[in-house]
Amino acid sequence: MVDESDETNRTVVRRRRVEGGRQHRHVVRVTAEEEGELYARALRYHVSIPKLLVDSALAGGSENAASNASVQQELLTTLFTTHRLLAGIANNVNQIARVGNSTGAVPAEAPAVLDAARRAAEQIDELVDAIAEAIR
Questions:
Q1: Are 12 and 47 in contact (CB under 8 A)?
Q2: What is the separation, in whole angstroms, between the first and last Cα of the chain?
Q3: What is residue 46's DSSP assignment?
Q4: Nearest-CA neighbor of 119 among 88, 91, 86?
Q5: pTM of structure
Q6: Helix, strand, coil % (nearest 5) of the chain?
Q7: What is the phi/psi pair of residue 47, to 5°?
Q8: pLDDT of 61-98, one tens digit each?
Q9: Alpha-carbon gap, residue 58 to 128, rounded angstroms
């Protein structure tokens, strides 16, 4: 999870580029109070104001849009954590293979490392399921 106490680690999420660009533009005029509220919500949800407006309209409100953005941020954080875990396990498997190839014996750590690899695979399966659920 992202450390919410350090807001400098959070980046503002902008809308993705689309091939050919966006062909339509809408200008929305707001009062000073509305601008303040839009700015505050965009900061709270770590998105740009245009992304907040579009996502809010298409997702059925800013709370739904924020929920989607929050889920996406959490999934991304989990994905990076799982990637680091998998890289460490791959390194351990390589070390075990090196020892096994040079000595002809299976190191005592092999079952624990393979069990960790299985757990990591299960985490990846859960993450894929969560991503599939989030984009529905």
A1: yes
A2: 22
A3: T
A4: 86
A5: 0.45
A6: 70, 0, 30
A7: -135, 165
A8: 656 656 666 666 777 777 888 888 888 888 989 999 99
A9: 24
